[in-house]
Amino acid sequence: MMTDASENAGPMLAADGTPLKQSLARSLRRQKLRALMLIAPLLLFVMFSFIVPIASMLFRSVENSIVAETLPLTVQALGDWDEKSGELPDEAVYDAFVRDMVVAIDNKTHTRLGSRLNYEETGMSSMFRRSGRQIKKLDPQTDGPFKDQIIEIHDGWGEPNTWAVIKTHSPAVTNGYFLNAVDMRRTPEGAQSQPEDKQILIKLFGRTLFMSLVITASCILLAYPVSYLLATLPMRVSNILMILVLLPFWTSLLVRTSAWKVMLQQQGVINETLVWLGLVADDARLVIINNQIGTIIAMTHILLPFMILPMYSVMQTIPHSYTRAAKSMGATNWTTFWRIYFPQSIPGIGAGSILVFILAIGYYITPEIVGGTKGVFISNRIAYHISSSLNWGLAAALGTILLAVVLLLYWCYDKIVGIDNVKLG
Amino acid sequence: MKPTKTLLTVAALATAAGAVSAQEMTIVSWGGAYSKSQLKAYHEPYSEKTGVTILNDDSSAEAVAKLRAMNEAGNITWDVVDVVAADAIRLCDEGLALEIDPDTMLAPAPDGTPASEDFGDLLVSDCFIPQIVYSTTFGYRTDLVGDTPPTDVCAVFDLEAYPGKRSLEKRPINNMEWALICDGVAKDDVYDVLATEEGQNQALAKLGTIKDSVVWWSAGADTPQLLADGEVVMGSTYNGRLFSVIEEQNQPVAMLWDAQVFDLDGWIIPAGLSEERQQQALDYIMFATDTQRLADQAKYISYGPARASSAPLVGKHADLGIDMAPHMPTDPNNAKNTFLYNYEFWADYRDDIDAKFQAWLAQ
Predict the structure, then answer these.
(1) Quick one: which of A3, A125, A268, A287 has the most CB atoms within 10 Å?
(2) Distance from B239 to chain A by nearest Cα, in Å?
(3) pLDDT score, position A16
(4) Angle CA B47–B51–B57, to nearest 5
């Protein structure tokens, strides 16, 4: 009926005579615009300080334009050369190489390329640096042919493998860093695994996941009773308990980690006490730091508040009347807890677990200080490649994989437990 | 009217700020006792002389990564940076540091010897202005080694004579060399052997004999702490750290100078500074690396000045009043058996051997 009426009367009009639909759309648009303006500062801030830098960092994991940019003519000339023939490239490549190098040396980019290729083939760094000093003296127009001269400068240029490495790593977009990140490498014959004595990253990924799970589990075990007490005790007592939970939370991470060092080392507080009590022999003191145990203890302690707080806020909302009702109908204490109370507290466990697990998986400074050799995480390797080896491509690939693993686990969690079941209060 | 006025005020403020910032410079160093020694020996006299305010930034440990990031962002906020020689070489390789001509940009010795000769072989890179010679060496607990204190670096590998834990740095550099020497490789052949697969395995096998008794450190302060707590019997660290444990904190620790590895620390000026800031940085460097200033630094910390002409001027410790010369790694009594960090070798092999070393550690 309504449609009939409006069709007959033409478009419905607003008070000022414009069609209602248009007027409504305009006012909605204005509202949306205002909302957008309100969030704009935050949106822009997040874009420029978070999303853009992270995206550009992740892009480094495949970016590899340095070879083709530094040696453009050489890369082109190498196109005709068969790297599997086992023979050296011909004069054209050496000629192109000298032309490229003269420009590169002028711009001081040849040593940078040397460090890049040294990640793939040991010795490239000094080869480029040393050859640079000699090649600088050559004139590409008049001093050719170059093949013998270049091999004379450094015999590395007389190895077919050197040229094969340059050719293999010349594409501007490479999967080489991702292969390195899973203990493989890019070779002229395709992807191959690293020699066994250099394989470590897969192992570290596995260890990071396993230890993060252990830390999450021990956080659940320790946090559950504490949160229960916090939620059920009278306000006055529970407030004091709450301060005890929050106090370490406000202390510097480094201070807490270093304190664990004092506690756990062999001449430390725990061992001294055990020896004094006669529970442990003086020459058989416990080794509980600089290994996995040390990392698990220290990280469990540090991440505990992230488990307690969501658990507590969920438990606070569980009405006492349910448990009282269960008991009045004859349930034992255990049945009441397990069938009535526990299921209602699961959303808190879920929220706490996600928080703790995701924080743990990226932890860096605590494993570095108390982890020794067996208790370090993949993030320690990422830090090494960012600040020491400067292999940012590999660091970015490792970071991307870590991010992908977290997203995958989050997705699994959503499928199995359901993200709607997570509550922060 | 009002907006114009505000604009003018802002412009005036900006100009004032610009004028102030020209009188400021940011110097990056390692922090702790080392930065303090530089503050006393270089920064304070320089500020007094020129009125320039010096801001300190303790970021030297991540200097290479941060300079690279600053360079990519096109905004370099540092004026002078203190780095170890290996990092200076990398910064120079990457084009991130300014090339220095020692004879025109650095002060000659008091007797007129040009800087290039005064520094001599220590000018290991075109961008590097050496400041000190330090060494990585061992200290041991005098009360835990029995009646025969160690005199030989191979005591580290001798678990029978010196039972207990030892601390070593969590990286292959230095450890691989010591392992090979104690496995019978002649000192001159160490790097030839280490360049081969078998040599690397040999070094790791030797380290494997003490692997269960090693605490691996990553910060220079770890070994002094472990020694003071009695957690380890002996451990490697920088000689200045051991000096402060022994002389300033009076712990029962002694130096084992055998097979100490010399390394250099010094300044670089970042490439790409504005003309004005670069002049300022060069002026500071000219002042801070002259003969007297380098000798002054040794009053506060036991690292050897990099100039030959500074050595005779090294005096007594500023607070303790003890003679500093016998505590220098370069003192003839301490330098009977030494190594110089092989920059070229490690620039090439660092990534390769480090991957093997870390995989070996994780086994």
Answers:
(1) A125
(2) 22
(3) 79
(4) 50
